[in-house]
């Protein structure tokens, strides 16, 4: 019974990859330095997994930016605007696709979107008519050679062709990327033929199989898998599915050319029986029994019963044990969390500990004596978690129970609120604002670090330092001429972690870094108990910022769905219950901000679309409670208080009606990388409230020109009436430097003024 993983975190326990990437981009290190760090990380992670008892480790899961972008490079599917004509996709071209060119008016980056229902962002492939493909990168092949030289029992990982095509966007309206199924297969076949000379198995990731597939996609998958299996021979294919159940695609996943099938039994344990019923006599089954997306310890006794059931049916030699998906979505090593509460810490497992759990399960399933102590420790941790009084708060539960049947609507319809808000706020046409955060400079981070070290003794110094940064942010916004200001969020390390540190039921880590995209890493908080807000969290900072200006100052909060989705959530109660608890905490903060005289409050729900179930049949239930939670958090304010929300990098076409039901007065969305494609959804539905489509991409160092922004605003006005349009970037500016942020915002304000003048003509 082999143990294996589908993928491992890339950035390193100390974010070594992040630091190397940013040094390279800033010209402080060369390509050789970057590649050296990458090799060291790969080697270290292979050794870590093997040393902890993982029998087979993945190779090719490592990426310098994104594994979907790596596949684009492998296929030579580089968009023409990047001018690539070489034999191999060089690092400069690779990073231009991911980040765009620096400087004004240069080539923009490719679009980003969320990887299924995770908070990981991938670079969206662009496919159009007449496109040709050829092997453009040997990165995977080179890494396999590297692993073999290191003595690693390696299994190469490829993103499957169906999933790649499903993730792609057409460059021409009406074109279906599936048209290129036949064109990309020769490149896959070439890679598989080379791999087959040195490996026994190749892992092909097809998470698209947990989605609703069309008849055409089903047929194409069959044809593609048959060709891939022939090209890979004598190596066999491990087909990896995850993030949900196969449903009606189970027979498709068990088709004969496939040597082994991996299924996610954490997200979809009920699929096991149907998979066993269709598994071929010569096929192996990989059981995804350890949660690859969350940090709770495995329930070993329950999982062992599951494994025993499968072994009894197919035999241990045809069974593999693995995490449910790649461990990309969890931090590297719990052993580094020396500051974490010991009780909560005993309930957790990060990537390294999940490797230990794989070994424990395999040994226990085989009846090895050495597994006994590990099982007893696992049982003790679970008893501790179930019995801990810190998990359940009767007052919070009573408050949620009292919500049954309660109305969560604003006091007046939007049209009436809009009229009142216009009189109160006195804003011009096409008002300008930002999404919330300003650059987190070295000075800002150093001030926060000093306060962490000094504790309460350094509170006065810390407060004055933060006020200084707020004064600077307000002054810069005055100089720029922005209409609605923000305080810049210098006190916030992260839009979720900051609030989690101040709420009961949450805890935060010191080194629990997880990759979000490229070099961007976050530390998701952990929700271990019932959630409440012991005291105001933002009021004094926003009140101080408002005292510096007579222009409207936005209060900035993170919404309940985003707090839930961007944390490691509880697995012992429904997400709806946790989300409503968070919503009540945010509701309390909203009330305090309003009483402090703040007339605009933004409640970010960047994760609303991300949390959407992958199967359409499950959408309604999720959207109902997600929208309910947002309305619960935001509805108890006066008509003159303007509620904003922000969403980023998601496809909204299918849920725009539900976004309207949130009834935010203003929604800001990412739209610049997609060249305002998202606006078609709001046009078709005739979205009734106000909207701020992001007019420039903050995830790239590139500074957009006035002409470029003006054109995007004009495109918006063809879809949305001018009296309902706001002008803003597509996300917060914390990851940018002040010079590029100021230059971009100067052009944003200039573009807004230019288009206003056109409206007055």
Describe this structure in words.
The protein has 761 residues and is of the alpha/beta class. The chain folds into two domains: 2-329 and 347-387, TIM Barrel (Alpha-Beta Barrel); 419-760, TIM Barrel (Alpha-Beta Barrel), CATH 3.20.20.210. The protein is 42% helix and 12% strand. The protein has 27 helices and 21 strands. The protein has an eight-stranded parallel beta sheet. Strands 17-18-19-20-21 form a five-stranded parallel beta sheet. It has a two-stranded antiparallel sheet with strand order 3-4. Helix 10 links the parallel strand 10 and strand 11 (284-290). Helix 11 (300-314) packs across helix 13, helix 13 packs across helix 14 (371-387) and helix 17 packs antiparallel against helix 18. The radius of gyration is 26 Å and the shape is globular.
List key phrases describing it.
761 residues, alpha/beta, TIM Barrel, eight-stranded parallel sheet, five-stranded parallel sheet, 27 helices
Write the layout of secondary structure elements.
Layout: E1 2-3, H1 16-25, H2 31-51, E2 57-59, H3 67-74, H4 91-99, E3 112-114, E4 121-123, E5 126-127, H5 139-149, E6 154-159, H6 161-167, E7 169-170, H7 181-195, E8 201-205, H8 215-232, E9 236-240, H9 250-253, E10 260-264, H10 272-278, E11 284-290, H11 300-314, E12 319-323, H12 342-345, H13 351-365, H14 371-387, H15 394-401, H16 414-425, H17 442-454, H18 459-480, H19 497-500, E13 504-507, E14 514-517, E15 520-522, E16 526-532, H20 539-547, E17 554-558, H21 560-565, H22 575-595, E18 600-604, H23 619-634, E19 642-647, H24 656-662, E20 666-669, H25 679-685, E21 690-693, H26 706-717, H27 738-760
Parallel strand pairs: 1-12, 2-6, 5-7, 6-8, 8-9, 9-10, 10-11, 11-12, 17-18, 18-19, 19-20, 20-21
Antiparallel strand pairs: 3-4, 13-16, 14-15
């Amino acid at each position: 019974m082999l143990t294996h993983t589908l993928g491992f975190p890339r950035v390193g326990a100390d974010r070594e990859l992040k630091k190397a990437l940013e040094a390279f981009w800033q010209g402080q290190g060369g390509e050789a330095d970057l590649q050296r760090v990458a090799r060291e990380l790969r080697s270290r992670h292979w050794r870590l997994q093997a040393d902890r008892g993982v029998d087979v480790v993945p190779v090719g899961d490592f990426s310098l930016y994104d594994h979907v972008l790596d596949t684009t490079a492998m296929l030579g599917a580089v968009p023409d605007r990047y001018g690539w004509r070489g034999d191999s996709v060089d690092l400069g071209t690779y990073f231009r696709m991911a980040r765009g060119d620096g400087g004004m008016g240069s080539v923009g980056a490719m679009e980003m979107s969320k990887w299924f229902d995770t908070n990981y962002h991938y670079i969206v492939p662009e496919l159009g008519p007449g496109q040709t493909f050829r092997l453009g990168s040997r990165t995977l092949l080179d890494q396999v050679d590297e692993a073999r030289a290191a003595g690693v029992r390696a299994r190469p990982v490829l993103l499957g062709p169906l999933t790649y095509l499903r993730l792609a966007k057409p460059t021409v309206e009406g074109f279906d990327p599936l048209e290129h199924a036949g064109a990309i297969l020769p490149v896959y076949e070439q890679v598989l033929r080379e791999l087959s000379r040195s490996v026994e198995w190749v892992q092909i990731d097809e998470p698209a199989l947990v989605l609703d597939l069309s008849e055409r996609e089903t047929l194409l998958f069959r044809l593609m898998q048959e060709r891939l299996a022939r090209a890979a021979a004598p190596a066999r294919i491990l087909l990896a599915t995850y993030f949900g159940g196969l449903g009606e695609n189970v027979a498709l996943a068990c088709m004969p050319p496939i040597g082994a099938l991996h299924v996610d039994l954490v997200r979809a344990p009920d699929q096991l029986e149907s998979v066993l019923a269709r598994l071929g006599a010569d096929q192996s089954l990989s059981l995804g029994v350890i949660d690859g997306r969350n940090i709770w310890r495995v329930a070993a006794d329950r999982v062992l019963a599951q494994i025993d059931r499968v072994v009894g049916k197919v035999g241990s030699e045809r069974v593999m044990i693995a995490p449910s998906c790649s461990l990309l979505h969890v931090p590297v090593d719990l052993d580094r969390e020396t500051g974490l509460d010991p009780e909560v810490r005993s309930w957790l497992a990060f990537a390294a500990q999940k490797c230990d759990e794989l070994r424990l399960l395999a040994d226990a399933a085989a009846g090895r004596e050495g597994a006994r102590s590990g099982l007893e420790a696992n049982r003790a941790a679970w008893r501790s978690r179930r019995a801990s009084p810190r998990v359940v708060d009767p007052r919070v539960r009573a408050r949620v129970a009292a919500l049954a049947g309660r109305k969560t609507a604003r006091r007046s319809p939007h049209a009436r609120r809009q009229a009142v808000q216009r009189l109160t706020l006195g804003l011009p046409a096409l008002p300008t604002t930002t999404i919330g955060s300003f650059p987190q400079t070295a000075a800002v981070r150093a001030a926060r670090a000093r306060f962490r070290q000094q504790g309460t003794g350094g509170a006065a110094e810390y407060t004055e330092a933060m006020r200084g940064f707020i004064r600077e942010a307000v002054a810069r916004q005055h100089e720029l001429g922005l209409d609605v200001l923000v305080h810049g969020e210098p006190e916030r390390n992260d839009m979720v972690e900051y609030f989690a540190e101040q709420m009961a039921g949450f805890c935060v880590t010191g080194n629990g870094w997880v990759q979000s995209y490229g070099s961007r890493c976050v530390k998701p908080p952990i929700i271990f108990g019932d959630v409440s807000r012991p005291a105001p969290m933002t009021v004094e900072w926003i009140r101080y910022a408002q005292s510096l200006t007579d222009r409207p100052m936005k209060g900035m909060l993170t919404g309940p769905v985003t707090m839930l989705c961007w944390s490691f959530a509880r697995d012992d109660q429904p997400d709806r219950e946790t989300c409503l608890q968070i919503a009540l905490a945010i509701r309390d903060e909203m009330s305090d901000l309003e009483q402090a005289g703040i007339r605009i409050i933004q409640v970010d729900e960047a994760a609303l679309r991300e949390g959407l179930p992958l199967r359409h049949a499950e959408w309604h239930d999720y959207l109902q409670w997600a929208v309910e939670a947002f309305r619960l958090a935001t509805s108890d304010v006066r008509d003159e208080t303007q509620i904003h929300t922000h969403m980023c990098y998601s496809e909204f076409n299918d849920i725009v009606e539900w976004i309207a039901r949130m009834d935010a007065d203003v929604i800001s969305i990412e739209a610049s990388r997609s060249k305002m494609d998202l606006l078609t959804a709001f046009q078709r539905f005739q979205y009734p409230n106000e909207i701020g489509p992001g007019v420039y991409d903050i995830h790239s160092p590139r500074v957009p020109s006035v002409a470029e922004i003006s054109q995007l605003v004009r495109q918006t006005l063809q879809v949305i009436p001018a009296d309902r349009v706001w002008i803003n970037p597509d996300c917060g500016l914390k990851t940018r430097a002040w010079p590029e942020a100021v230059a971009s915002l100067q052009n944003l304000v200039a573009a807004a003024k230019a288009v206003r003048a056109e409206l007055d003509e």
